[in-house]
Each structure stands twice: as C-alpha cells, then as structure tokens.
Design goal:
By secondary structure, the chain is mostly beta strands. It is built from no helices and ten strands. It has a single domain, classed as Rieske Iron-sulfur Protein (3-layer Sandwich).
Length: 111
C-alpha cells in the first residue's frame, strides 16, 4: 500500500468535493459526515474531462457539472452507463488529514 497525505480534512466540505493534485494526478476528494467518511476518485469525467470535484453530490452520487453524467461514489461507475467509470482509490482519515492509496508506479502524462 502506498498511502499518501492529500489534504486536511477541514478543507473538504461535508457532502461536497475538493480538488487535490498529487504527483501530476488530479483527484476529487468527497467528505461525508459519517465517521467522517472520505472517497477519493480521479477528478476528470471520462465523457469530456469535466471537473468532478465541482459537481453536486446527491445521495452518494456526484453529478458532472459539464454534461450531467452521474457517478456512484461507492463504485465509481456511471449511473446510466456502468461501462463508463472513474477510478476510485482506497482512502482514510488520519490525524485530521485525508490519505489515499495512490499507486506510485503509474506514470501520469502531463498535458
């Protein structure tokens, strides 16, 4: 496991997303009040690269602000087309910070 510190939990609004960049990878961190629970996914919508951290969250689903594609935060799958999905990373809260298991061995191309 390659857990890395991403962001202070207090920077993540409850039932909302926060944009984080780590090692060239754009991520969206979502915080829910329970425990507190956090979910980390790739920030880019697979349809047209919309900013998922800026999307509305309703009932555990984030809605892409560009074309309204919906993604189940528990699985990363698109609600209407499960073949489309965003990558989800194991995440946890430690000492007031969000950590996620981000594979260090994967190369992330820069635009």
């Amino acid at each position: 496991m390659a857990y890395v510190k991403l962001v202070e939990l207090r920077r993540c609004s409850v039932d909302g997303g926060a944009f984080v960049e780590h090692a060239g990878r754009e991520l969206a961190v979502f915080r829910f009040d329970a425990s507190p629970q956090v979910i980390v996914i790739d920030n880019s919508c697979p349809h047209a690269s919309g900013n998922l951290s800026g999307g509305k969250v309703r009932g555990g689903v984030v809605v892409c602000p560009w074309h309204h594609w919906e993604f189940d935060l528990a699985t990363g799958a698109c609600v209407d087309s499960p073949q489309a999905r965003v990558r989800r990373y194991p995440a946890e809260v430690r000492d007031g910070f969000v950590y996620a298991d981000i594979p260090a061995s994967e190369h992330v191309p820069r635009g």
